[in-house]
Amino acid sequence: MVAIRRASRYTGLSASIRSCLALLGFAGLLGGAGVFLLSMDGGETQRGTRGLVGVGAHSAGATLRKPHLVYGTAWKKEETAGLVRQAVATGFRFIDTACQPKHYNEAGVGNGWTAAAQELGLSRGDLWLQTKFTPIGGQDPNNVPYDPEAPLADQVRTSLEVSLKNLRTDYLDSWVLHSPLEAFEDTMAVWRVMEEAVDAGKVRQLGISNCYDLDVFRTLYQQARHKPAVLQNRFYESTKFDTELRNFLKGRNIHYQSFWTLTANRGALGSEQVKTLAEAKGLTPQQYMFAFMMSMENVTPLSGTTSRIHMAQDVAVMERVQSGESMFTTHEQRLFAKILGMPMDAPGSTAYN
Ligand SMILES: NC(=O)c1ccc[n+]([C@@H]2O[C@H](COP(=O)([O-])OP(=O)(O)OC[C@H]3O[C@@H](n4cnc5c(N)ncnc54)[C@H](OP(=O)(O)O)[C@@H]3O)[C@@H](O)[C@H]2O)c1
């Protein structure tokens, strides 16, 4: 058994050494049960039997109130099952996919989480699964997971049934409309069908993605019977980091899920200034970015890493945030926002409350 105790003693270690220690724990986990992985809050987190801090069976509500990372499964093709299995073994519990074979292997996600659950003794309630209905415009015309000639409502219903089968589950924790449709009435027509799925107990909550227009989001919110609980968008400078939208989400219990979080901010993350800031907290620049995101109210970054080392780093920083460690002073948060080019009064950040 590998036992790494009292991680707070290691706060002086460089990020790379700490990552290696976390990896040691990961390797140990695969080797047998009852293994303890480095938990940077100074405590121990037993994996496989209890799951991550704040992530447990039938506690989705409480869990969602804790900052966390979502494991993203796009572009992994035939590697999907193995990577999802590895992500869960490392400590991810939230998984994002889509019923869009062009970019996602949804069945691979189903195989991956069930394999990991079996190995680790986890149940469905220990995982949080999110998938998407992708309108026809976002599908590969040669590989559409529903009848493209069928009425829109039927396309949505079929997509859900395909997702449930692929994911090997009888309910989704979260079902996201991949993007608004061209006509708002079509967006609402899809939403009404998605609401039926909530009524039927097949879906716990709804969301929308690639919605960068506050008016569209607000109108959807106003007209929805089951309000959106998620907005999944690209987090980047071109949209001013969705500052207005995130302001709208605040206080409405809507999570902002960010993608492109690292990719779109590579320049800032590669700078010497950020490397220095991150190193001072024993973090890599990428971990620092994720910590910054999780320090904002209701902001949840996605990580689609394919690297074992990065998986371990991502889980380690998530655990640090979940442990309640105060990672940023207001000054540090403002400084980093400025480096990113994010509006200084960005709402949604605890630093600006
Ligand atoms: N709704 C949508 O339309 C939409 C669009 C795009 C993505 N998404 C979702 O968002 C997920 C994430 O996608 P993304 O575009 O943000 O990019 P990503 O797939 O997470 O890629 C991030 C890049 O950063 C690198 N990286 C370096 N250090 C890292 C670290 N510590 N942790 C994680 N990555 C690190 C990764 O390389 P390594 O692999 O070597 O770590 C990778 O090249 C997708 O899988 C998908 O679920 C949704």
UniProtKB/TrEMBL annotation:
Superkingdom of this protein's organism: Eukaryota
Keywords, sorted A to Z: Membrane, Transmembrane, Transmembrane helix
Statement: the UniProt record of this protein carries the keyword Transit peptide: no
Record domain NADP-dependent oxidoreductase: where: 74-254
Pfam families membership: Aldo_ket_red (PF00248)
Listed transmembrane segments: 21-40
InterPro entries for the chain: AKR, NAD(P)_OxRdtase_dom_sf, NADP_OxRdtase_dom
Entry's Gene Ontology molecular function annotations: oxidoreductase activity
Keyword Nucleus: no
PANTHER family found in the cross-reference section: ALDO/KETO REDUCTASE
Name of the protein described by the UniProt record: NADP-dependent oxidoreductase domain-containing protein
Species per Swiss-Prot/TrEMBL record: Pseudo-nitzschia multistriata
Lineage of the organism: Eukaryota, Sar, Stramenopiles, Ochrophyta, Bacillariophyta
